[in-house]
Amino acid sequence: MKKRLRKKRRLGEFREDCFELTFEMSPALSNDDINSLTDMFIDMIESNGLQFGGGGNSLWSGIVQGPCRGSATESDRRTVLDWLNQHPDVLNAQAGPLRDAWYGWSS
C-alpha cells in the first residue's frame, strides 16, 4: 500500500494508539469538589499533551490519546494512572493496554 493511503487509513507508521481509562470519584465529594477535581484532571491531561474523550459525574470512563494525529505512549498511560492513584478522592482507577485507536475495537 502506498504511503499516502497508509496515512489516510492510519496504518503502519501512521497508526495512532490510545488507551481506555475508568475511575471513580469518592461519593463523599460535593458538586464543587467534583468540579474542582474534574478541572485538575483536565489540566493534567492537557499539560501532558494528551486528549481525553469520555466523561462522567462520579464514575468516569473514556479514552486517552495523543494530540491530533499522535499516539499515547506507555509512559503517558503510567503518568495518567499514577496521577489518579495519588489523588485521595479518586477510587478504582484503571487504564487498559495501548491499542489501535482506529482498528483496535471489537463490536
Automatic annotation (TrEMBL):
GO terms for cellular component: cytosol. It comes from the Bacteria. This is DUF469 domain-containing protein. The lineage of its organism: Bacteria, Pseudomonadati, Planctomycetota, Planctomycetia, Pirellulales.
